[in-house]
Amino acid sequence: MDRRTLLTTLAATAASGAAPWARAQDYPTQIIKWVVPYPAGGGTDVIARTLSEAMRQTLGQQIVIDNRPGASTNIGADIVAKSKPDGYTILSADNAVLAFNEHLFNKLPFNPEKDFTYIGAIGKFPLALVVHPDFPAQDFKAFLAYVKANPGKVNYASPGNGSPHHLAMEMFKNRTGTFITHIPYRGAAPAMADVMGGQVPCMFLDLASGLSIMQGKKVRVLAIGSGARSKLLPDVPTLAEVGVPNSEVFAFQGILGPAGMPPAVVNRLNADLNKAFTTPAVQKRFADFGMEAMPGSPQQFFALSRAESQRWGPIIKAANIKLD
């Protein structure tokens, strides 16, 4: 091959994107956009900003948070799914994108299994069953007896239809054969306010939003949906301990990119994410939120997401929950 032919071949290869390893060697060389499918100031946004600052230190590039709320996270997710797979557009993804929405919507603009590159899990925090302090039942056993004796007469709050809190109670109802009436709110704050005020007696509440009111005794915590007791609430039994098996309920988050990202770029982002978990600022933020970091590989994150989708699909179907 003469020199002119060689140069022409190399130029064509670079233009076609057929050698992603060449680009990945120098990654990143420009600002990274981190899409958060929720408004600024919420828990997902705060976690993304905390992690992005830690990752900026090791990546050597600025990371800009781009809040794109709407359609139960589908707007932000679709933007990333249709972005160039070069590692410069990533997404904060939670239960909605990863496990719920494919069952809640008849049609999505993306396929969560095929249209994304899985980069790494961020963390998870369990949900706990809480009641107003004046609710007649003082413990889980009494609560279960009360709702069974009053089918349809006890209401529960949630931040909205299709939220982890809503589906956690639907799983609880499925496992216990109870009938509790759903009162959806627009966000966790008003739902918590009405449970604390006694307008609605109970809800499943995540530790990220509600740890302070749980520890402050503004609500009574009956059980927690984790595999083991929480160090933050050591006196609260797990649902399994009180006789509700196969009922672990938690919210979890991770980072996705568009399908087809270069493996070297994925591995770099995954390594920097896992390193961020060791920084004091991230560890403090996670502790404040009651969040458990989930360091691991992209493959482990993908496996968790698919397992959660398979676990929640039947619950959503049995409860006949649809968001479109």
Automatic annotation (TrEMBL):
CDD domains, per this entry? PBP2_Bug27 (cd13578)
Gene3D superfamilies according to UniProt = Bordetella uptake gene, domain 1 (3.40.190.150), Periplasmic binding protein-like II (3.40.190.10)
UniProt keywords (A-Z) are: Signal
Where do the TM regions start and end?
none
Q: Name one Pfam family in it.
A: TctC
What InterPro entries does the entry give?
BUG, Bug_dom1, TAT_signal
**Span of the signal peptide:** 1-24
The family this protein is said to belong to: Belongs to the UPF0065 (bug) family.
Name the UniProt record assigns to this protein:
Tripartite tricarboxylate transporter substrate binding protein
